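Below is one such protein, fold included:
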Amino acid sequence: MVVENSSVVIDDDERPLAPTLEQVASRAGVSRSTASRAINGGLRVSPDALAAVEAAVEELGYTPNRAARSLVTKRTDSIALVVPEPDERVLSDPFFAGTLNGLSTSFAESDIQVVLVIARPGESERTVRYLRNGHVDGAIVVSHHRTDDLDRALLSSRVPNVFVGRPLSVDPADVHYVDTDNFAGGELAARHLIERGCRRLATIAGPEDMSAGVDRLAGWRSAVRAAGLAEEAVLHGDFTLASGATTARELVDRFPDVDGVFIASDLMAAGALSVFAEMGIDVPGDVAVVGYDNIGVAASTTPPLTTVVQPVVSMARAAGRRLLAQLHGEPVTREPLIFAPELIVRASA
């Protein structure tokens, strides 16, 4: 048979044939079943036979058939990064790029591939069905909400999983998760504003159905009350640029005397800073601003943003390693891994 297009003619009879498992077994001097076991984990294979098979694979350039391998190992060599957010949020928020970066480094020395699963609002049942049906070996869940039910569903399943961020709908002691100390981060932001002399404090908090939103607000409130100050204003956004801009307008309209504001994500803070500039409000002269995350945008806003570090890459890397340990059958503590917050001071405060 000849396959032809405008630039090349290829005769199928002249294609080099890919080496087979039988050829590997023959070269190694072992049975086909021994060669298969050696390639798929080395179980019940002697060290000499394993070395011979590995040498034959290298010499012949043999590549295992992944579909056939999955039938033997019951593994897909893939894990799902599950994000219960709208498509446009996933594609535009640097948090998710940092998460992918961290996961990629944690799996760099394995054959595991990361599959992005966007669990759109109202589709959590479909997502859990996909995870349970053997398409992936495990799941990392980020940016989850109280109402998406992924924590409850995964807790009742046999799918190995790790959450980035504390789940709200189940007992945290029952799940594997990594997080930053968002309460301490909120306190850190408020204390910095107070120490620089701000007395009429406001916050644009995150969503009330996410632990990051709840805990950062609680930490901010704790520091404000400890200083004997009143909460001037508490408004809520959804961690997006647009919500930061919209909520900043509401803040200025309703509470024009505010002199210090903690904004619970850098994207929301970037949106707010653009509104403050448009309205002629000087930052930090009229109002000091502290964000949260320390993503790339924080250093490029006008003025550059003082912010609390959330080590997204390190969190994702740690989550990936904990999932790998589960997949390898290693004992994994359910004690959460919590990263300490750090304040990066720039011109906005």
Summary: The mean pLDDT is 87. The radius of gyration is 26 Å.
